[in-house]
Design goal:
This is TerB family tellurite resistance protein. It comes from Tianweitania aestuarii. It holds the Pfam family TerB. The chain is built from nine helices and no strands. The mean pLDDT is about 85. The protein is globular, with a radius of gyration of 15 Å. The protein has a single domain (about 5-140), classed as Orthogonal Bundle (TerB-like). The chain is mainly alpha-helical and about 140 residues long. About 75% of the residues lie in helices and about 0% in strands.
Length: about 140
């Protein structure tokens, strides 16, 4: 991402703001984009899925609920700049535990509304393959 854009975000939102932190961290951006895509996979954004994303963002990424709307707006606006090739390269660099956690987060979001759509299952299956995670690692993972 161009440094000028990052500097603009810092000046608008403040240096320690969650949006600036996401903008400066391509790994975090790629993870959040994938989680956001899981929410959109079935074509509907449910309150339960958004609440699950909020909980994940706060617990795993330290993004406060008050900042989440700004982070989502950033992802909507600039997420297209992250290509599939860039995401693949980023995800390949993650350690296995972080890949497992990302996959578990995706599954949590997919199950949040208590209804799994075909598109959600397909996206999760593709992500597991990309992350080199076996489904049993997610199903049998300790909470």
């Amino acid at each position: 991402m161009p440094q000028g854009l990052i500097n603009k975000l810092k000046s608008v939102f403040g240096a320690e703001d969650a949006v600036a932190r996401v903008a400066e961290d391509p790994i975090l951006t790629a993870e959040l984009l994938l989680l956001f895509r899981m929410i959109l996979a079935d074509g509907e954004i449910s309150d339960a899925e958004l609440e699950t994303l909020r909980r994940i963002c706060q617990g795993s990424f330290g993004i406060d609920e008050a900042d989440l709307d700004d982070v989502v707006d950033y992802l909507r606006t600039y997420g297209y700049e992250t290509s599939v090739a860039q995401s693949l390269a980023i995800f390949r660099r993650l350690d296995h535990d972080r890949k497992q956690l990302l996959a578990r987060h995706m599954a949590e979001i997919a199950k949040a509304d208590h209804h799994l759509e075909k598109q959600e299952v397909q996206l999760l299956a593709r992500a597991l393959k990309l992350l080199e995670i076996e489904p049993s690692e997610i199903v049998n993972a300790p909470r």
